[in-house]
Amino acid sequence: MKAQSKAQQRAAGAALSAKRGETAKSDLQGASREMYDTMTEAELEEMAATDHDDLPERSD
Q1: Structural domain count, the chain
Q2: Distance between CA atoms of 41 and 50, rounded to whole angstroms?
Q3: pLDDT tens digit string along 13-40?
Q4: Looking at the domain assignment, is residue 1 inside a domain?
Q5: What is the dihedral angle through the alpha carbons of 51, 39, 5, 2, rounded to the nearest 10 degrees?
Q6: What Å distances lie between residue 28 and 8, 17, 55, CA to CA?
Q7: CB burial of residue 7 (10 Å; 0-12, 13-18, 19+)
Q8: Considering the domain boundaries, does residue 57 fall inside one?
Q9: Using 50, 70 and 90 to split pLDDT, how confident is the model at 60?
C-alpha cells in the first residue's frame, strides 16, 4: 500500500524504525503507534518508501 500523504509516509517511517528496534516504541504516538501495532514490517517499508514528490502534506 502506498502512502497517500507526506504525513502518512513520515508516520510509517517512524513506526518502521520502532519495529526494527532503532527507536523506542514508547516514542510513538498517534498514527505511527497504530501503524506499529497493526502493520507488518514489509507493509511499513512499502509505505515509507513511497515517492513523496507528488504527495500532498496531508490528505483530507
Answers
A1: 1
A2: 15
A3: 999 999 999 999 999 999 999 999 999 9
A4: no
A5: 40
A6: 14, 10, 23
A7: middle
A8: no
A9: low
